[in-house]
Amino acid sequence: QVQLVESGGGSVQVGGSLRLSCAASGYTYSSGCTGWFRQAPGKEREGVATINSDGSTSYVDSVKGRFTISRDKAKNTLYLQMNSLKLEDTAMYYCAAARGLYCGGSFSSLLYLAFTYWGQGTQVTVSS
Question: Per-residue pLDDT tens for 40-53?
C-alpha cells in the first residue's frame, strides 16, 4: 500500500520561504515520475514541479527560478523548496507519484490525470 505524507506547509509573508516534504512508504521515488501540484480555492489542480527517476526536473513557468524540487533517496522523501513566495502561491499543495511514468516537462491542465498516488495535501498561505 502506497502512502504519501506531506508536511511543511504553513503561513508566510510575501518574499518568504517554505520547504515542503513528502515522505513515501510503499513507493520508491526512483520508480517513476513524482511531482508537486497545488490547488487554490475555486481553481483547478495545477502541476508545479516534477522530477523523473533519472533526476531530470521541470517547473511550471510561474515558479521557475523560485521553487526547487529534489529528493533524498536514503530517506525516500521528496522536497519542494519554495523561495520568494508570492500571494498567488497560496494553495493546498499535494505530492503525487506514478510508477513507470516519465514526465516530459508539459504542465497541461490534465497532467494530474497521469498520477496514481496522492498525498493528503499541506496548506501554504502567503500574506502581505
Answer: 999 999 999 999 99
Element (H, E) at 67: strand 67-72
Q: Which residues contact 92 (CB under 8 A, 6 or more apart)?
A: 38, 39, 40, 121, 122, 123, 124
Could you read off the pLDDT of 53-105 as tens digits, one per residue?
Answer: 999 999 999 999 999 999 999 999 999 999 999 999 999 999 999 999 999 98
The CA distance from 89 to 63, in Å, is 9
Task: Give the span between the Cα atoms of 65 and 123, in whole angstroms.
Answer: 21
d(CA 19, CA 21): 7
C-alpha to C-alpha distance for 76 and 127, rounded to whole angstroms: 32
Pull the grid cell for residue 33: 515520475
